[in-house]
Structure formats: structure tokens, C-alpha cells
Amino acid sequence: MKKYLLKRIAMAVVTIWAIITITFILMHSVPGDPFRQESKMPKVVYENLHKKYGLDKPLSEQYIIYLGKIIRGDFGDSMKSRVETVNDMIKRGLPVSAFIGLEALLIAVVFGPALGAIAALNQNKWPDYLSMIIAIIGVSVPSFIMGTVFIQFLARNIEWLPIGGWGSFRHSILPSIALALMPLAQLARYMRSSMLEVLGQDYIKTAKSKGISKATVVLRHAVRNAILPVVSILGTVATNLIVGSFVIEKIFGIPGLGMFFITSINNRDYPLIMGTTIFYAIILVIMLLIVDIAYMLIDPRIKLTKEGR
Amino acid sequence: MKKSLVLVLAMLMVLSFALSACAPKAPAETPGEAAAEPKILRTNNAFEPGSLDPALAQGTHDSWVLDHTFEGLTKKDVDGKIVLGMAKEYKLADDDVTYTFTLRDDIKWSNGDPVTAYDFEFAWKRALDPDMASDYAYQLYYLKGGEAYNTKTGTADEVGVKAIDDKTLEVVLASPTAYFLELTSFYTYYPVNKKVAEANPDWAKNADTHVSNGPFKLTGWEHNASITLAKNDNYYNSSVVKLDGIEFTILNDENTAWQKYLGGEYDFLTPLPQAVVAQLKAEGNPELVIGGELAVYYYNLYNKMEPFNNAKIRKALSLTLDRQTICDKIAQGGQLPAEGVVPFGMLDENGKEYRDGVGKLVEYNVEEGKKLFAEGLAETGYKVEDFKKFSILYNTLEAHKIIAQAAQEMWRTNLGIELQLENVDFQVKLDREKAGDYQISRAGWIGDYIDPMTFIDLWVSDGPFNDAKFSNPEYDRLVKESKATTDQKVRMDNMRKAEKILMDAMPVVPVYFYTQPYAQKPYVTGVFKPLNRYPYFIYADMNK
Questions:
Q1: Hey, how many other C-beta atoms are within 10 angstroms of the C-beta on B128?
Q2: Which residue on chain B is closest to A52 by alpha carbon?
Q3: To pair with A25 at 20 to 30 A between CA atoms, which of A55, A210, B80, B135?
Q4: Which residues contact A264 (CB under 8 A, 6 or more apart)?
Q5: Which residue of B has its CA nearest to A105?
Q6: B203-242 residues touching A, CB cutoff 8 A
Q7: Which of helix, strand or coil describes residue B201?
Q8: A271 upstream amide cis, omega within 30 of 0
Q9: Burial level of B42, CB count in 10 A (0-12/13-18/19+)?
Q10: Closest Cα of chain A to B415: distance in Å?
Q11: B243, B542 Cβ separation under 8 angstroms
Q12: Axis crossing angle, helix A143-150 with helix A169-199, rounded to the nearest 10
């Protein structure tokens, strides 16, 4: 177990280094410049700005300087904000995004697989159809439409919840639900198909024929086995939710991290592009690791190393 | 076992609860003031300011807050006229370049320090400091030695601004500037508290340490979420300020912001979604106000490239563009069809509208356009089919796309040419314009100060924003001459002539003049919109 973890961590470091390098190269090969504006800015002012942010140095040198900073945990200064560093922005945005993301994840994890299981157990009956209609809506209606509809009906017309903005738990409810729908639907569909597969297996029939109650068969044998493929996609889903969604944050006016993924690229704010990408990569790697461990705990057949047996 | 996973998630959630609990919080209610409800105007600033330091601020979202918290030597009154602000008088010497300002006696910073001439000298030199790398430093190039200092060919001591004593500021300009008193109301010219800024270089980053000299002071700034201003009791003219404060949220989705306005969460809102403006206008809703704006929307033509180096081709494109239809049916935001490159609202030497003196320099005349186009094609040897390889470049935004589509269609119907549409990131568009890698590109210009010159000098041969690469010696001469005199008659005559030369050559095709529509609740009064600034709440009142 320990050896496995160490190996995984070493791999993660290499992965992140590769991501840093590729992002750095891609980012600088995209045309556009952070300091070009629709303005009469003289060339010298433009050059002053380039010098201030070290963009006048050769790319290889910038890369080495950047790696040095990253090792010290410093993501550098944003080129667009003179107020906050990239570290400040992540520190401030993450709790907000993570709060909404985890709320959404909880909703998705609780309701998604349940919906899928119900559908599978009632295959081709109305609960199945209903569940799958909900799932199809969740997958096919984009979150910006859901968000807008929620704002219009639940916040504006019925005035149950605030229209947008941030400040209290009430503000987080609508964006969380809007954010949860897609993964909820995905999880439901995964769960349904894997559940159907499991229900057809011999060991379920054996269990049934041994006279075990239906509930026990479903919970102890069917769900436990069917949930495995569902857990495997959870890492990616969780990461996407936690680091925030550009669309949801924009529509609901939430000061989270998701916004920076898009705005940094549009602004060619190099340090912020790197900062958010690396941060995302780190979270993703950690999540995938957690999923693997969860997998191991759920399925006793999977043993990762010989010692673990 | 799923339980343990859920448990982990729940724990993470609790953790982030705890983390977020120490971050964003609604401002606490002030207790004990139940008697008179404070008048707080609530509105939205669409983006987080890049800085609230006058030297580093560079956009509307920065300056809207600064315009309420700072005041320069001069300021704009309700009619948009320039009046004295921090200065009580000024003298202009016979050389036309030396100004001596005397400051008022009763001016204080929000922390109680007196505002002195040294604060102005410090602020202006600080913005010009090359190490400061201010985007807007060039706004101070009017000062003698300003450009040299900023470009490291001169020193701070050589810059033409000097405090003689606490109350006297001597300013020497590089050349006579007729609109200098207009410039001193602009935010790059705002003072900075020298004592505060020297003790703490990060003074402008937080509400606790922010010090200003205007009608309001910064009391709260939750990054990316909200900005709170309170009336500044140290402001000399605070008796005219009726509001107790202003609350800006920072929310950049126009539709959500509009829903909040409808839901009564804002008293005032700008910008508005385009469809909303069209709808409010159609129903004659009194909450909608179409504010003036000092900006022009145009298409650059790359004048250095065939066939766009041919004036007849360029003029034909202008003549066959139906600007009225674009404004009424496409843009629908209250925009006005362009009549040249200089928007409405600026006054000439007689105090009359500048545009009336120069007239309508662009028109919609398909017959004339077709004729010129045919002549232009004959002169350049180009064929109608050749235009298939040219495109209209615009930065990715729905509002630009629909206008580009309309222009494409008008030129197709009227001239028979099939132009392509090409959308790219804003930064890429700017890069390509600079590199001359385009044929037709969408552009816009917002005036820096209220004088036609802010538009006219865009197209001098070496102008930094002359992406059309227009060059005309007579045009350059007229601009240069206007810049060297404060004689309004000469200046205005020259600028009128220059604009005619420009529109005769048509290096750029003006489309419309921007306006700034805003919505305010019926109980809000006294808001005024200076031509080149966001609306001012300084004299606003609320009578609910």
C-alpha cells in the first residue's frame, strides 16, 4: 500500500511537470499579448509593462524562472490585477467554488446512483422511464439554461431564493442544483446500465435462489458491485465541480475560481493561466488517487500490490 | 463502503463551509440608527477593478469607483462643464504653458490629513515613474518632461509639475493644450496622499488602508464580489452629497444583473442587455435613460493593401452601408448612425455642437457607391470574385457578430461582393491589427477627454492606434498646428478640415456613435452622465 502510494505520488509529480511544460509552450504559442489594448498606449509604456512582468526575457529563461517559483509555491503576479497575486486569487476563489462544488457533488452522488438503481430495478416500467427522462434532461440541457430558468422562476417569480450574488447558504442553493444536474444524470445512467448488467449475473441468481431477501440481494450484492464503474468516473466529476464552473459562476455572480479559467485565457494573463491549470491538475491527480483508494476499499478483489493481499 | 466516500465529501464540505465563513460576508448592519434609514444606492459594477490606485487604474470598472472617491484640481459639474475642484483658482501665464493652481483651504483626505500641492506633484510623478509601469502614464505626457521621464530619457526632477508650497502647484506643459483643465479632472491626474502611499505602497489594495479626497470613501472591498462606499465627511462640499453610501456588487452577467434590478435589488443599473434596451425603448419605459457617450464604432480598412489602398473602393464600402438600419434593427441599444469619426456632444469655439459645424460626412447612397466601386475595380484590376478571399475581422462577441453579418449582407446586396466573417479573441484581433494582418476589422474608440482632438489625432501618420495605416501630410499638419495653439477658432477650423480630409479618403468606415443606456428606479434623482464617464451619483438622491 505504502509503496503503491509512493509510486503514485512520484507519477503525479511527473504528470504535473509535463502539464506545466505543455501549458507553458501552448500558452506562449497562442497569438495575442496581455498588454495590447484598444488604446493609444505608446510603445515605451508597452515595453515598460513587458519588462515589469519579465516578458522581455527569452522564453527558455522565463520557463526556468517560472519553475523555480512554482517549486516555492509562488504562482506569480496577475498581469491584469494590480491588487491580488495569483495565489491570492486561488486562495479566495477556491473555498467559494469548492463550497458550491461539494454541495453539488453531494446532491449528484446521493440522487444520481439512487435514480439509476431505481430505474434498473424497474426496467421498462414507469419509474425507469421517469428516471431516464430526468437523466436525459440533465445531460442535454446546458447548465446556463438551467441556471437562467432557475433564476427566472425560483428566484424572480416565486422569490424563494436570492437571484444571484454571494454571501449566505441560501445563495448557494440554486447554483449547486444547476451544477449538480449534469453529473447527477451521468451517474444515474452509469448506475442504471451497470446495475442491469450485475442483476443478470449468476451470483445474483444464486443469492436469490438461496432465499435471501430482495433488499439484501440488492443492497449487499447488486449495488455494491454495480457502483464500481460509477466510482471510477467520480474523480473527474468531483474535480470539475470543486474548481468551479465558468458558466454557473458567471450567471449567478459567484466570486469563485471557475471564472478565471476562461477570463485568464481571454486576457492572456499568463501567470493566471498557469496558476489555474496547475492547480486544476493537482486537484485532479489527488482526486483520482482518492478514487483508486476508494475502489480498493469497495472491491475486495482489487488489490494493488502483493503486500496488500 | 459508499458511506465512507459520502463521509469524506461531507467532511470536505464542512471544511469549505468553515473556509468560506471567513471569506465573504454581507456587511454588518449598523445598530442604533433605526430612526433615519441611510440612503444607500445599490448598483452593479460589471467587473472587478484591476486597481483602485489612480496611477494604475485604466478602465471604466476602475474609474467608476475612483470618480466617486477622488477629486482632481478640476471636476465636472452637472451640466458636464469643467469647474474648479480641489483648486480655488488658477493662472495661465502668457507663454500658454505655465499654469499656477492655488488649492482650496478646506480640503482634507478621508483620514483627516490636509490635501496639499505636494500630493499632486507626488501622484503625477508616481504615475509617470517607469518602474510603476502604469498603462495610462501617457495621459500625463502633456507635462513637460513627462514622456522623457516615463521613457527613461529624463528624470523626475525635470517633469513640469512642482509644489511651491502646501497650497501652490506650478505646472509646465510640453506645449499649449486647450483642454488641459479638462484633463485635470481625469483620474490619472487625481492626487494621491503622499504620506500614506510612501508609508505603505499597498495602500490602494484594501478598503482599510485606502485614502481618498472625494465625496465618498472606500469602506469595503470583497474582491470579485462587492465594493462599498460611504459618504466622506471630510469632503469640503459634503453638504451637497445626499447619499450616505453606494454599494456596488461585482457581477458580470448582464441578464442576471437585470433580473436583480427587476427584483428590486438595485436602484440603478448599467450596462443593460441589448434586448432589454430595445424592449424598454419600445414600451417607452421612463426608467430607461439613454445617456450620451463619447465613442465611435468603426471598421478599419487596411489602407496599405490592394484593393483597399484605393479611395474609391473604400468610399464605396462606406456609401453602401446602411447605418440607420444597423442602429435601429441590429444594434438596438440606442446607438446613433455615425456622421463622421467625431461623436456628438462636443462644443466648438462658439459653444455650439461641433458636429453641426462640420456636417454629415458619411451617407447611404447605393447608386453612388456602385459607381465608385466599379471605377475602383477598374483602377485596381480587381474583380468582384476576388473579394471572396477577404474577411471582416471582429473580436468574438455576439454584438459584433450581428453587425458584421449585417455589413456583410449589405455589401453583398449592394456591391455583389462576398466577404468572409472571421472572429478571433480580442487580444488576437489587436495583435493582427498591429501587424497589418487583416483587410477589414471592427474597432471602437472611446474619447479620453472632451475635445474632438481625442478622435482626430488617431489617424496621424505615426499614431499608435492608426491601424488603418492612413497617412496624409496635410492631415498631419492640421493636427500638429491645432496641438500647438490654444486659439479655439484655429483649432476647431483645423479639426473640421481634418475630419473632412479623413472622410474624403475614408481609411476607416464609421458605423455608429455609442450611447450608454441605463435604468434607474423612479425614486432615484440627480444622477448625471458626463459624456465620457460612467454616471455620477455625487448629487444623486433617493426619495422612496
A1: 28
A2: B133
A3: B135
A4: A272, A273, A275, A276
A5: B9
A6: 204-205, 222-225
A7: coil
A8: no
A9: buried
A10: 30
A11: yes
A12: 130
Model confidence at B28, pLDDT cuts 50, 70, 90, reads very low
| Interface check B395 vs A, CB under 8 A | no
Query: CB–CB of B343/B454 below 8 Å?
Result: no
**C-alpha–C-alpha distance, residues B514 and B517, integer Å:** 10
Are residues A167 and B131, on separate chains, in Cβ contact within 8 Å? no
Among residues B47, B50, B67, which one has the least CA distance to residue B225? B47
User: CB of B156 within 8 Å of any CB in chain A?
Assistant: no
For the stretch A8-59, pLDDT in tens is 888 888 999 999 999 999 999 988 888 887 777 888 888 888 988 999 999 9
Contact between B312 and B372 under an 8 Å Cβ cutoff? The reply is yes
> Number of A:B CB contacts under 8 A?
189
- Buried residues in B68-92 as b, exposed as e (16+ CB within 10 A): bbbbbbbbbbeebebebbbbeebeb
One-letter amino acid for residue B509 of the chain: V
Task: Quote the mean pLDDT of chain B.
Answer: 91
**pLDDT tens figures, B331-366:** 988 899 999 999 999 999 998 999 999 999 999 999
The shortest CB-CB distance from B133 to any of A33, A49, A253 is to A49
* pLDDT at A245 (0 to 100): 84
Angle at B246 between CA B213 and CA B117, to 5 degrees: 5
Nearest to A164 among B17, B260, B444 (CB): B260
Q: How far apart are CA A55 and CA A59, in angstroms?
A: 8
Query: Does B521 reach chain A within 8 Å, measured CB to CB?
Result: no
Whether the pLDDT of residue B411 is over 70: the answer is yes
Rounded to a whole number, what is the distance in Å from the CA of B272 to chain A's nearest CA? 15
How far is the alpha carbon of B451 from chain A, nearest alpha carbon, in Å? 16
| Residue that the C-alpha cell 497589418 belongs to | B436
CA distance B303 to chain A (A): 19
Q: Are B114 and A9 in contact (CB under 8 A)?
A: no
Tell me if ipTM is over 0.90.
Answer: no
Q: Give the DSSP H/E element, type plus range, for residue B108.
A: none
* B77 pLDDT tier (thresholds 50, 70, 90): confident
Partner B contacted by A109 (CB < 8 A): yes
Concatenating the DSSP letter of every residue in chain A gives -HHHHHHHHHHHHHHHHHHHHHHHHHHHHSS--TT--SS---HHHHHHHHHHTTTTS-HHHHHHHHHHHHHTT---B-SS-SS-BHHHHHHHHHHHHHHHHHHHHHHHHHHHHHHHHHHHHTTTSHHHHHHHHHHHHHHHS-HHHHHHHHIIIIIIIS--S-SS--SSHHHHHHHHHHHHHHHHHHHHHHHHHHHHHHHTSHHHHHHHHTT--HHHIIIIIIIHHHHHHHHHHHHHHHHHHHT--HHHHHHHT--SSHHHHHHHHHHT-HHHHHHHHHHHHHHHHHHHHHHHHHHHHH-TT--SSSTT-
Query: Which residues have C-beta within 8 Å of that of residue A218, sequence separation ≥ 6?
Result: A117, A121
> CA of A65, closest CA in chain B: separation in Å?
20
